[in-house]
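Q: I have 470 residues here and want to know how they pack in 3D. Can you give me a structure?
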Amino acid sequence: MPISALLSAYRNGTKTATAEITERLVTITKREPELGAFLTVRKEQALNEGKNIDAAQDFSKPLAGIPGAIKDIICTAGERTTAASKILENFVPPYDATVVKKLKAAGYISLGKTNCDEFANGSSTEYSAFQQTKNPQDLTLVPGGSSGGSAAAVASGECVFALGTDTGGSIRQPANFCGVVGLKVTYGRVSRFGVMSYASSFDTVGTFTQSVEDAALVLEVIAGQDEKDSTTLAAPVPKYSATLQQDIAGKKVGLPKEYIDADGLDPKMRKVVINAAEVLKKKGAQIVEISLPLTKYAIPTYYLLVKAEASTNFARYDGIRFGHKTKDSGDLQDMYRKTRAEGFGPEIKRAIMMGTYTLSAGYYDAYYLKAAKVRTLITEEYRKAFEEVDVMLAPVSPMLPFKFGEKSDPLQMYLADIFTVPANIAGICGIAVPTEKIGHLRTGVQLLGPQLGEEKILNFAWHLEQAFQE
């Protein structure tokens, strides 16, 4: 059941929070041995919280008794938070991230922490230090990444919603691979306080849900300015769920030709986008072809900047302040080397080497500074495009979900993000919404909106969702 239906059931007494939590825990017990979506499950705590809500009979809060899950890169007080890395295998934060505090205040019940690529650095959840997460649609396929655990947990019915992070597509791509709704917010729309940083000027916190309405309801809870995160925006939080059904007749939908005609785009995925455009056209929207010529620079720009920021952020894991510390070391430098060699996985080591090289003397101007300038140009290109159209419609991924080990070449994996990273570069919002099936795999499209354009993309996504359910 969606969130609104669950809350109604709680309020009219046809269902209890305890029963709902129990059902989800049964699903987790049944699915987890093959699925591997969770790193930590809060079985006893979740049941007790459900019983407390039922005893109080207060279902006035927006997420009262609603079972959710949290990507294991988001801090939870007194509960292990690992970022799927051995270097933080036994780390227990003393505080909650702001988004967790807001969810608790709204009455949600956490079922646990979900698996991800180590420090959110990956596109398949193959780079977790602890386990692989499988795609619930087909266990031979990856669920996408880095938030693959959250996507798989929602897609398999293990929870109603889950939080993830999107630095370059890490919500939209796994949502698309697993056939659920994935919302990437405007940079600064949701607080990052208490979220372990990958690339600080790109990271965003968003949602995985079974429906667009649920995405709107959870966003209403977690969005807003936070004094503990100076990058959050001083903008009011609309009631997103109230504007979902607004008419889209006469509104303009941009089809970027650099996305639709891109080399490497699977023709079947292109057809999915064209079908979605036809649906929106039938609902009265105008379909407009637009051009974003700087798209071809998005991947190199993104990876130069992101790896530079990552190498700086990962410097805090030194074996002294928190996390793993080697048991066998000589001087300080030796301790640093051995701690990081033991604690970090291959993709994190690659990020540190790439980023440090990019920022090093003699290369900073040639690489990092130039990429920063291109980022400004790409941001401006999107800003101007949104003066002409309300939203953009595009593929999420150039391909369907792939098999484990299929993208062993790091460059191949990076190129899989070609349609998602531009939104992070420009700091705009986007949503992946499933529309149809290709074979046995549910897949869909993404809608991109301007900065703080979440109302627009949720509105269009709702119309697509309704049309393909009919």
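Q: Anything worth noting?
A: The mean pLDDT is 97. The two ends are 18 Å apart (CA to CA).
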